[in-house]
Amino acid sequence: MNQIIKPMEFFIFWSRWLQAPLYLGLIIAQGVYVYQFMHELALLVTKAGSLSENEVMLIVLGLIDVVMIANLLIMVIIGGYETFVSRLDLEGHPDQPEWLSHVNAGVLKVKLAVALISISSIHLLRTFINAGHTEDRVIIAQIAIHVSFLFSAIAIAYTDKIMMQTLSVGKH
Fold it and tell me: What distance in Å separates the CA atoms of residue 126 and residue 113, rounded to the nearest whole number?
């Protein structure tokens, strides 16, 4: 029986590498966001004198939104790869992200939830600035989505805290 189980366990453990192409795909998606950012930045710079204050603010919020999504992608790419596929050999590297040294699935979930709330906040701010051109039901739906992100993040953080306390008690 052990002759069957050992290779099966090795194969199951090896299967984590199937996620590597997914992370490479996210890197390509980040390249698309870099292109989008540069396109929006060029629009802002070339039309700077002819844009209203609200238009400038909306474009800048769009730029911030792209940066926040790119940050989210980095967290998923690096944190996910490190947590679920393989350790990154970055010890002593001057550019190693500080959060990477204590990343695990729970920390990654909380960080992602906070990033989603931040992105949702930017979208909501853009909606409020452009409220005169937005239907009330759209504004209400965005507020409801944002509030659900908030409650979800609190629930994830609380669950992670309980799990960490349980693990801590179990070690003693």
Answer: 20
Whole-structure pTM value: 0.75
CB 70, CB 34: distance < 8 Å: yes
* Residues 94/65, Cβ–Cβ less than 8 Å: no
Coil/strand/helix, residue 37: helix
The Cα 151–Cα 164 span in angstroms is: 20
**Class of residue 136 by CB neighbours under 10 A (exposed 0-12, middle 13-18, buried 19+):** exposed
Cα gap 156→110, rounded to integer Å: 6
Residue range 108-153, pLDDT digits in tens: 788 888 888 988 999 899 898 888 888 999 999 999 999 999 999 8
- For the chain, give the mean pLDDT: 88
Answer whether 26's CB lies under 8 Å from 74's CB.
no
As a whole number of angstroms, the distance between CA 59 and CA 47 comes to: 11
